Amino acid sequence: MSVTIEDIAKEARVSVATVSRVINNSKAVSPELKKRVNDVIEKRNFKPNSLARGLIMKRTNIIGIIVPDISNPVFGALTRGINSFCQQKGYTLMVCESGGHQEKEVELLGVLADKKVDGVLFAGVDVNSALVEEMKSMRYPIVLVTQEASNGEEVIHTVIHDNVKALYDAVSFLIENGHQRIALIGGPENDYSSGQKRLKGYKQALEEQKIEVLDSYIEHGDFSFESGYECMRKIYEENSVLPTAVMVCNDAMAIGAIRFLKTSKVSVPADISIMGFDDLEFGRYFSPELTTVRISYFDEGLRAIKTLFKLIQEQSVPMTQFIPHKIIRRISVKKI
Amino acid sequence: MSVTIEDIAKEARVSVATVSRVINNSKAVSPELKKRVNDVIEKRNFKPNSLARGLIMKRTNIIGIIVPDISNPVFGALTRGINSFCQQKGYTLMVCESGGHQEKEVELLGVLADKKVDGVLFAGVDVNSALVEEMKSMRYPIVLVTQEASNGEEVIHTVIHDNVKALYDAVSFLIENGHQRIALIGGPENDYSSGQKRLKGYKQALEEQKIEVLDSYIEHGDFSFESGYECMRKIYEENSVLPTAVMVCNDAMAIGAIRFLKTSKVSVPADISIMGFDDLEFGRYFSPELTTVRISYFDEGLRAIKTLFKLIQEQSVPMTQFIPHKIIRRISVKKI
DNA sequence: TTGTAAGCGTTATCAC
DNA sequence: GTGATAACGCTTACAA
Questions:
Q1: pLDDT tens, A262-271?
Q2: Which residues does the UniProt record annotate as the domain HTH lacI-type (chains A, B) (predicted)?
């Protein structure tokens, strides 16, 4: 078996309480004993059992995170941001994947409760009332990241980029560049923050400029390359008057859309401009280089975990925090 | 506080032992009591404390994984494969990032020991003797995935794709397509499996066909887009006779290399063919569509976690297992 | 300052 | 079949 605090106590000829005090610096211990204990600890390479410790302290130094899919670069970057802070603070990260299914999300919330995590970061698709209730019933703090609750109530702390504003800015940018016929390839309709909110920003920008919003210019994909291709095809085939620009709600779909246009001998950006969202690394190496909206998911994760730590320490934090976005001008959008 | 086994016992008017038996199905309990206990458990929504359980059972149902960078799609896919199996088996995954630094890797091995994980999956860069020793000293089973130990000893179980053979096959494919002047953009020289082994496969294929291996045709990148660009630039500038094909050791660098060639008005594949490695999704949407070597990292992760489970259950498994690779023919390689 | 002993919430070993 | 009770390895009153 592993070496225990008792072994250390015996070998250092002190009580287990003293060893514990030395480990935790919890109470004064005479320098002499302290050294004796530390020497033995070093020598035997003793590490306190974190289960026993967690059992009594009700703190495990484990943070849970729930994401739809860890192989998605967006959630990868998010997780990396989170992990960077956790490691520095001596915490470890338990990663759970929900596939974006609400049932699974609820289940995972329970799994993490079982594991006695100190807090949870939650990235989902649609945080509706049922899910919010579920979250409120958990006895660990939760921070929503990447999306807000869809019931309009601000009861769970949230770190997010402003999707409405981001799309508004992006579409306004297209308008400033002379575009009037602007189509949208958006996210799933049931995706509150990345679907509905972005759609809202798109409409806002158009309406503000008195540009008509055309249903035939709006398609909903699922953020995959394939769906970008498919949505672009529909817009292309179902409109006799083509848009001069397409706002695509993530880079992967933007690449898919461009792929379709290339196949159809439509030149980007000469004939149609394409704007993406996220600013994944490959967009810079794509041809044409992708104009996009940069979201730093690393920073978003970082802010979220910092917020969670404050919550764990029972400090007060604003209910909602926004991460800035930035228009990245490259080649795929042309001024007309 | 949370409801405990004792609360359940009281409410069901039985002993804690009986409740425990019901929970674990460990010993026969009369149907009558069983029902009474289960009803109370249901009603109070009781979940046994996994820390207390872990403390006594010496099993936590937690698996650790150490990867260089979780935002790298390769490790993302790997992790997803692992997680898919873990979830199904009621295990959770603790994800640690090493940045590929050996010191950090050793530290994380210790962190996971602290957390009493039941086993660890390790994806690193150079698993040398020191690291192997460290691993052997851990009291949980470890499976190397994505790379083998670099000291030649097969003492840690390993799940990997055959890098030598994969490169051999890829370069042979180029040769079959008429290429003789084949350059290589490889991985870091200190990366045993993905660097040295792939280089070896490249050389083997050339030598077998009596094609001279030219130093000026070999560059080492770090698997990033940028380094692919940079390596391609060097090859382009430092050779008066250009290669007709470049074997690039991952897709990201391949895209970077193509980017450089485009910038230099060299057409791919008309002037130079480019072959990638990994088969990340975007390669299919890139233009020209990327010819590459497909590795299913999802499957690799899956096989690795299955192996680890066998080890945990003390079943015997082969020391090294190979995951198949496959040449994916697309546009970026031309027959000449 | 130090030690003794009572938990923390389980499982497992005994008796009955 | 069922129930006390002793672990598991630690922290923390409470005493000394």
A1: 999 999 999 9
A2: 3-57
